[in-house]
């Protein structure tokens, strides 16, 4: 049966109206008083009204932003008075719900037979989606730039902090061993130690924000991590805040560094606490969802998949629309001076992005906030739980090659280990380390090496030494993850990542743990 052609509109006016309303662009005409003489459905939808209601009215009748209205009026008059077409590459219009839309508009005069323009015709394209993508890209580039800066200074700065913290710890320990009662000396050393730890924490935050913090991703149960923090969370928040933790799906497994996952949860909880100065309700929930993620910067494609969803909801002050656009920027804070670094949410953002996740925020002033963090679900077995070596089992007599091109760090690490009975072969260059490994009359039990060094890096050194000391474990000392991981994104079963700066106890525990694994 042949397809019957559709009947034409009842009139030419109806036909033209259909053409106008089917067009996704905003089409309009205005007179010299600013009244709309012609509008299409797209413009009526922006203002939350009908074509009939909008016709004969002005922008001021629907747009709450007086500056926008004045701008539109000024451009309209320029076009009509100059009798020339004008292209506005970017202007903003506020819709009926108070949301801003970015437009790219062409306006031209409608000239009568007398050569005078009493109306202006406009065609505007909504470029809001493109603007959001551009903003995402700029934000990503800004974060990458700061991350590169943080990574650039991290290696040298963390070496210096390692020397300051390590030697201060050793001096305090010797004071205790020798029962020195000089209170002023101990107080001074403790102040140095405290300041150094705060500096190390700040560097760690910058690296986390820039996605360059040393990491050890493993498969974890999101619910287990959240519930394990229950007691700590109750200590962090005040008594006038009710905390509820709910796990809707205990099977959700994610691949992430545990310390960084805990940092996400704690940062969001602290922010929620600060948003509820008069008390309230903090809810943390774990669930699983099928979700289509927003496109990443530089890509127009979204990703559909199964995600573990961590939702943190508070009943606090909420976030203003202006602040919402900046909350993930580094050093941006709505708190009073001295009440925060402004890195909390930017760190969360950096960590989430690093592990392939996404974060979304829903908030209104006075109605609280909901942070939703999406992590890709993995179908792999959980990582085994490792027990830390107890403090009374940190001594040893094994032979360890320590390779570090920074002399002060080399002396510090060697001294800490020698104090506990280990036999140390110290090397400032990879050539010295290789030579010592080849000629050593003792069996070598462990390699402890920096990563960034001249000639060859730590991983290359480890491969070379392991070729004639097969199976020895390796501990890599590193200031940030890009130093070590590069194209290889994981560690072997006999490899351990020790982030600088580290404490004496952390060093000794790592060494003893890797030696015991042999």
Q: How would you characterize this protein structure?
A:
With 518 residues, the protein is α/β, with parallel strands linked by helices. The chain has 3 domains: 115 residues, PAS domain (Beta-Lactamase, 2-Layer Sandwich), CATH 3.30.450.20; 159 residues, Histidine kinase-like ATPase, C-terminal domain (Heat Shock Protein 90, 2-Layer Sandwich), CATH 3.30.565; 127 residues, Response regulator (Rossmann fold, 3-Layer(aba) Sandwich), CATH 3.40.50. The chain is built from 16 helices and 17 strands. The strands form 4 sheets. It has a 5-stranded antiparallel β-sheet. A 5-stranded mixed β-sheet has the order 7-9-10-12-11. Strands 14-13-15-16-17 form a 5-stranded parallel β-sheet, with helices on both faces.
Keywords:
3 domains, alpha/beta, Heat Shock Protein 90, Beta-Lactamase, 41% helix
Please outline what is shown here.
The chain is α/β, with parallel strands linked by helices and 518 residues long.
Outline the fold blueprint.
Layout: H1 12-22, E1 26-31, E2 36-39, H2 41-46, H3 51-54, H4 66-82, E3 86-94, E4 100-111, E5 117-126, H5 128-177, H6 183-209, E6 218-221, H7 222-228, H8 230-236, E7 241-247, E8 253-256, H9 258-274, E9 280-293, E10 303-314, H10 321-324, H11 344-354, E11 358-363, E12 369-376, E13 399-403, H12 407-419, E14 423-427, H13 430-439, E15 446-450, H14 458-466, E16 474-478, H15 481-484, E17 495-499, H16 504-517
Parallel strand pairs: 7-9, 13-14, 13-15, 15-16, 16-17
Antiparallel strand pairs: 1-2, 1-5, 3-4, 4-5, 6-8, 9-10, 10-12, 11-12
Helix pairs in contact: 5-6, 5-12, 6-11, 9-11, 13-14
């Amino acid at each position: 049966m042949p397809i019957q052609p559709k009947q034409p509109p009842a009139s030419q006016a109806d036909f033209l109206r259909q053409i106008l309303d089917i067009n996704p662009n905003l089409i309009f005409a205005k007179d010299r008083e600013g009244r709309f003489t012609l509008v299409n459905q797209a413009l009526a939808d922006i203002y939350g009204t009908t074509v009939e209601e909008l016709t004969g009215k002005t922008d001021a009748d629907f747009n709450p932003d007086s500056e926008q209205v004045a701008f539109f009026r000024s451009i309209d008059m320029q076009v009509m008075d100059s009798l020339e077409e004008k292209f506005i590459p970017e202007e903003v219009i506020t819709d009926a719900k108070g949301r801003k839309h970015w437009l790219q508009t062409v306006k031209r005069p409608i000239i009568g037979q007398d050569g005078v323009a009493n109306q202006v015709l406009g065609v505007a394209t909504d470029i809001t989606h493109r603007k959001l993508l551009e903003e995402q890209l700029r934000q990503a580039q800004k974060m990458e730039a700061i991350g590169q800066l943080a990574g650039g200074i991290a290696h040298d700065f963390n070496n210096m902090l390692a020397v300051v913290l390590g030697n201060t710890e050793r001096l305090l320990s010797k004071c205790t061993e020798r029962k020195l009662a000089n209170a002023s000396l101990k107080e001074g050393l403790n102040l140095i130690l405290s300041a150094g730890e705060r500096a190390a924490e700040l560097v760690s935050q910058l690296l986390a924000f820039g996605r360059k913090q040393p990491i050890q991703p493993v498969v974890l149960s999101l619910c287990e991590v959240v519930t394990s923090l229950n007691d700590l969370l109750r200590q962090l928040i005040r008594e006038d805040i009710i905390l509820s933790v709910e796990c809707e799906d205990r099977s959700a497994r994610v691949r992430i560094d545990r310390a960084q996952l805990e940092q996400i949860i704690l940062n969001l909880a602290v922010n929620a606490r600060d948003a509820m100065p008069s008390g309230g309700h903090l809810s943390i929930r774990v669930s699983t969802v099928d979700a289509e993620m927003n496109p990443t910067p530089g890509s127009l494609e979204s990703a559909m998949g199964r995600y573990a969803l961590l939702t943190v909801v508070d009943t606090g002050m909420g976030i203003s629309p202006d602040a919402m656009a900046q909350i993930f920027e580094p050093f941006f804070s709505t708190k009073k001076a001295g009440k925060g670094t402004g890195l909390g949410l930017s760190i969360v953002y950096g960590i989430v992005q690093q592990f392939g996740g996404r974060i979304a925020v829903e908030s209104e002033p006075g109605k609280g906030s909901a942070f939703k963090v999406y992590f890709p679900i993995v179908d792999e077995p959980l990582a085994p739980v490792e027990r830390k070596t107890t403090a009374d089992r940190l001594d040893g007599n094994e032979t360890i090659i320590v390779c570090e091109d920074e002399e002060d760090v080399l002396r510090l690490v060697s001294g800490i280990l020698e104090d506990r009975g280990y036999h140390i072969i110290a090397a400032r260059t990879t050539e010295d380390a290789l030579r010592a490994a080849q000629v050593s009359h003792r069996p070598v039990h462990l390699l402890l090496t920096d990563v960034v060094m001249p000639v060859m890096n730590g991983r290359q050194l480890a491969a070379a030494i392991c070729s004639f000391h097969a199976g020895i474990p390796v501990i890599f000392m590193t200031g940030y993850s890009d130093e070590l991981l590069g194209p290889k994104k994981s560690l072997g079963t006999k490899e351990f990542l020790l982030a600088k700066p580290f404490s004496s106890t952390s060093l000794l525990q790592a060494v003893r743990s890797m030696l015991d694994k042999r």
